[in-house]
Amino acid sequence: MEKICGFPQQGGAAKSGIMRAMKNADASTSPRHAADLAPAHAPTRGKGTLADHVTSVLARQIRDGEFAPDARLPSERELTERFAVSRTVIREAISRLKSEGLVGSRRGSGTVVLGANQATPFRLDMQVEDMRDSIRAVLRVIELRRGVEGEMAALAAQRRTKVQNQAIQQALKAIDKAAEDGRDGVQEDFAFHAAISNAAHNPLYTSLVQFLSQFLHAAIRVARMNEARRSDFGQQVRSEHAAIARAIADGDAAAARAAALQHMENSAQRIQAADREFWASEAGQAAARDLARQVETKE
What we know:
Layout: H1 2-5, H2 50-63, H3 76-83, H4 87-99, E1 103-106, E2 110-113, H5 131-159, H6 162-180, H7 186-199, H8 203-213, H9 217-229, H10 231-250, H11 253-272, H12 276-280, H13 282-298
Antiparallel strand pairs: 1-2
Helix pairs in contact: 2-4, 3-4, 5-7, 5-8, 5-10, 5-11, 5-13, 6-7, 6-10, 7-8, 9-10, 9-13, 10-11
């Protein structure tokens, strides 16, 4: 990854929690079925919201096995007192834990920990602390996406129908039209890759590309802003997209794979190429805030 990212490996201390291990749960829950809970201190204001902190602490305890499967979480009132936060914060944290498949509601038992055999949504641990980490995180997503896009393009070359090929070519023209109209073309860019995923005839590729793309909108916008300052970048992107589309139209799987891999690698390089002058500009600073915010909210 370091070859693409160009950043040295960074250790960094793990984010501090609001509280350490919590004291024993109430007497109605056996020690095996509940985590030890320590008295809460009023949470300090740091990066992220109070709900972020509470969610992080409880999620870590669940994943570490401090709450056994089917164990009942402490009541909302107890969590409110021990974390020294409002009920609204606790409810938001529990809602997030439910969305991650870590806990669920059970009639007569309240909120309980779900077993490992139950489906858990996939998530990426981005570990973002600052804008530099945001860029590194985006580059890692691009590296992950690189292999997906390569094989997806190869399958599209082998399986695409005439109608799907036309959709890919039209999506390519839409990117050009966006550039002519002075728009950044980010949505059109993603639509082009979505058309290729549809042509691969494997819905899992479409789902995975959509999942990874949620981390990249701000990053692609940064690249497009930089391209506007570097005309050679804009032409590069156009040539790369055209090469992918041409190989798919020709039914050349090897060429489609190679073109897609090259496009992803070059995309990472273009994001890195944004120089100090760009980041110092008003547009660059706004883009940096958007980039950090987007990656943080997906963490």
